[in-house]
Design a protein that fits this description.
The protein is an alpha+beta fold and 203 residues long. The chain is built from five helices and ten strands. The chain has a six-stranded antiparallel beta sheet with strand order 4-5-6-9-8-7, covered by helices on one side. Helix 1 (2-19) crosses helix 3 and helix 2 crosses helix 3.
């Protein structure tokens, strides 16, 4: 019980230091080893305190990596998953691959057929990663006449978690977008992954 009380006191002390401006949003805090030395406690005690602060959204970052003071969530509403993104995006990966049965079904092509793909990282106005968009298509990219959407949830994998500076396995929103030609056939499909604490969906 004493250990539990101690790590909570350290968590409270770190929150006070953040509120007093010692570390700004987006700034790294000292390492767990340095904090343990500063407070004269075992490193595990600091780990417990940091776990509380990550859970409460005060700190963000992956386990065993440096942690940052979290920005207050800027909750945005996504109303047009097929619209242009206004704040800038960058292609972070691309290539070709053989389609899985599930992806082939979405594209309405034979399983194992080769499709092109790319992943875009889209930023919010402050330059933080706001959305990851992975698209697949066959041949060349064609104009589409309409789009359809399905909304669900997904747990972040390691790469997604790193981009969003969130713990791995955090629940995120996913919009599966299908772009259709004038005849209603898919020309491109995409998964839009959005941190659930930063977005509302209205599609």
């Amino acid at each position: 019980m004493e250990e539990r009380a101690l790590h909570r006191r350290i968590a409270d002390a770190l929150v006070r230091r953040i509120q007093q401006g010692e570390w700004a949003a987006g700034e790294q805090i000292p390492s767990r080893i340095d904090l343990a030395s500063e407070y004269g406690v075992h490193e595990q005690t600091v780990r417990l305190a940091i776990t509380l602060l990550r859970r409460d959204g005060v700190l963000e970052g992956e386990k065993r990596r440096r942690l940052y003071v979290a920005y207050p969530p800027a909750v945005r509403t996504l109303t047009d998953p097929d619209g242009d993104w206004p704040y800038g995006c960058e292609v972070i990966d691309a290539g070709t691959r053989r389609t899985s049965p599930e992806l082939a079904d979405r594209l309405r092509i034979p399983a194992g057929a080769t499709a092109r793909w790319e992943t875009l990282e889209c930023w919010d106005p402050g330059g933080r990663s706001a959305m990851l968009v992975t698209s697949w298509w066959r041949g060349w990219r064609r104009e589409h006449a309409s789009a359809a959407f399905e909304v669900g949830t997904v747990r972040l994998d390691a790469r997604q978690a790193q981009a969003f500076r969130l713990p791995m396995d955090t629940v995120a929103l996913i919009v599966q977008r299908t772009r259709l030609d004038a005849g209603g056939l898919p020309v491109e499909v995409a998964d839009l992954v959005l941190p659930a604490d930063r977005w509302r969906l209205r599609v």
